[in-house]
Amino acid sequence: MSDLSKIFSDAGKSLTAEQENLFLTYRDYLKEYNEKVNLTAITDDRDIAVKHFLDSVLGEKFLPKNASVVDVGSGAGFPAVPLKIVRPDLKFTLMDSLNKRVVFLQSLIEKLDLSDITAVHARAEEGAKTYREKFDAAVARAVAPLPTLLEYVLPLVRVGGLFVAYKGNAEEELAQSEHALRVLGGKLLRKEEFSLCGDKRTVLVFEKTSKTPERYPRLQNKPRISPL
Predict the structure, then answer these.
(1) Phi, psi (5° rounding) for residue 63?
(2) Which stretches of the chain drop beneath a pLDDT of 70?
(3) Which of the four, 6, 69, 97, 162, has the lowest number of CB atoms within 10 Å?
(4) Using an 8 Å Cβ cutoff, are 90 and 66 in contact?
(5) What's the order of all strands across the beta sheet hosting 117-121?
């Protein structure tokens, strides 16, 4: 058993040989590409396996079968690409505002020979025009504080769909998000806490309960400057 497989196994998740190979190829390509384009500060093999790969798949069980999923602020592909590796039934759109990251994502998808997964260059505010309430689910990891993040993401999710947010200690951000949830049409369904190498991780699952008013997300970076 490889170190990667053992890390997953110790966390109660088993990998097929094909999945393990995809993760190893991903890891090596990320490290190689990272030398010319800064994608991540995490470059140790074990840290990549735990803090990027394993962390990304924590939310897998909350995503419905065959769902269309948008990853907002996908960066170097987290959490979407690890989720795709363990859940090939999911159909992903990876959205990022920096073109250099989108170029990496497109080349990564090609290298891993993944299907039903595309990367698009767009800010969430722009994406909401093209993809408004189109997705069954959304995911986001390490993008913005929760009140801001909800304004970016919920407009992309259909009524009845889900938003799975990856956070550290989420208590304070949850308390700050009550108004945003009321305004944007969402509610917290569940909160699940994990420990990864001593770090507290929280997966928050929100349901889209009603249509988001057309004025959201606001433009000109207002969700960050003046959160709901």
Answers:
(1) -90, 125
(2) 1
(3) 6
(4) yes
(5) 117-121, 91-96, 68-72, 135-141, 157-167, 199-208, 186-196
The predicted pLDDT at position 168 comes to 87
What is the 3-state secondary structure of the chain? CCHHHHHHHHCCCCCCHHHHHHHHHHHHHHHHHHCCCCCCCCCCHHHHHHHHHHHHHCCHHHCCCCCEEEEECCCCCCCHHHHHHHCCCCEEEEEECCHHHHHHHHHHHHHHCCCCEEEEECCHHHHHHHCCCCEEEEEEECCCCHHHHHHHHHHHEEEEEEEEEEECCCHHHHHHCHHHHHHHCEEEEEEEEEEECCEEEEEEEEEECCCCCCCCCCCCCHHHHCCC
For residue 169, give the DSSP letter. Answer: S
pTM of the model: 0.95
What domains does the chain contain, in order, with CATH numbers?
3-210+220-225 (3.40.50.150)
